Amino acid sequence: MTTYERIMSVIAIPMGWILTLLYDFINNYGIALIVFTILIRACLFPVYNSQIKNSAKLKEFQPKMQELQRKYANDKETLNIKMMELYKEENFNPAGGCLPLLIQMPIILAFFVLIRNPIAFMSDPQMLMAVHESFLWIPDLSQPDPWILPILAGLATFFSFSMTQTMASPDVGGTAGMMKMMRFFFPIMIVWMGRAFPSALTLYWFIGTLFMIGQTLLMNKIKERKGLN
Hints:
Elements: H1 3-26, H2 29-43, H3 45-60, H4 62-71, H5 76-89, H6 99-116, H7 125-130, H8 148-165, H9 175-194, H10 199-228
């Protein structure tokens, strides 16, 4: 086991236990992966809920931001200073939207080493064979799917970014332009990586992104109903 895998084992070993328990109960590796993904996303719900609330709060004082933009249109340095002062006044964290991704990255990395080297993190012998099971059109979940699953993951990522962009802040220091670029670049990157990574990891990303989209749509509907009452 490499030094990197030893570090990741802090997360990978518990993930291996959970995945083994799910497989013992379901007896289908692909479905066990889907249930595993939903469990992980459900545990991260408070983080995503905080992100949605952060975006809603941003909309409340967006007119103040637009006023500052008009006032300091020719002075980007002062504009950024005034924006930071406004964020502090409103108790708003502009980096809050990045928190879910930052939290999820160690989980994805740990899941990657778990799938790539299951013998190092799962003691149950049946799991060494389970990781090679087929699922739907995928003949081996430990191997990359050349096109279908990566494209589905890329489309889901694009839709998720599009939803997030509608709640993004006005352009400060080129952030809006960067978000628009990421809206197209990141899904393409997901497709490219999905064609190289084990199908199980791409399936995790696809199902997780769908779950996140569903969470966002549900939270938006709840907010709309509250607004009407």
